[in-house]
Amino acid sequence: MSKRQKRISVPDILKHLDELIGQKLSVVLNDKSVIYVELLSFKNNNFEAKDLIRRKHTIALESIDEIILELDA
């Protein structure tokens, strides 16, 4: 089975909130570092997320460059 990527840029993130919450995805930050997390919620322009070893993170919307989803094709 193959995979394809769906890239969501900053202006479109709020339009796709329902699709993103609960998903495991890669978040590309403004400094070009990438973190792989599961998004838990979105409040006050911040995402609450947890990584693969279950550490919690708060990711500010303004610190995100883009979000990458891996979809089954």
Which structural class best describes the helix and strand composition? mainly beta
Radius of gyration: 12 Å
* Secondary-structure element series: EHHEEEEE
Strand content: over 45%
Number of helices: 2
DSSP strand tally:
6
Mean pLDDT equals: 93
Strand order of the largest sheet: 1-6-2-3-4-5
Q: Stretches where pLDDT falls below 50 for ≥5 residues? A: none
Largest beta-sheet characterization? 6 strands, antiparallel
Outline type: globular
Alpha-carbon distance between the two ends: 7 Å
> Helicity level, as a percent range?
10-25%
Summarize the structure in words.
The protein contains two helices and six strands. A six-stranded antiparallel β-sheet has the order 1-6-2-3-4-5. The chain has helices at residues 10-13, 17-20; strands spanning 3-9, 24-29, 34-43, 46-50, 56-60, 64-72.
